[in-house]
Amino acid sequence: MQADFGMSMPLYIAGGSVAVYAAIKCLRPGMRQWGGTMTAFWLMVAFSWMMLANLSSTGMTGISTLGLTGGLLITGIGAAGAFASQGRLDPNGSVHFYYPLYLLALAGAVAIGFATDLFTIFVAVELSALPVYVLCAYRYKEDPKSLVSATKYLIQGVVGTITALLGVSLLFVAGHTLQITALPAALAAANPVPVLAGAALIIVGYGVKLAIVPLHTWLPEAYSRAPVGVTAIMVGATKIGVLLGVFLSLSALPVGPAVPHSIGLLIIALSIVTMTAGNLLALNQRELKNVLSYSSVAQMGYILLGFGIGMAYDLPLGFTAGLYYAIAYGVMKSGAFLVADAFELHGGSPDLSSMKGMGARNPVLGLSLAVFIFGLIGIPFTSGFLGKLLLVQAGMVTLTLSGFVLALILVANSAISLGYYVPVLSTVLFGEASTPGSTAVPLKVPATLITAITLLAIITVYFGFFSGSFTLIAGSAHQLFTPGGL
Question: What one-character DSSP code corresponds to residue 92?
Answer without folding.
Answer: T
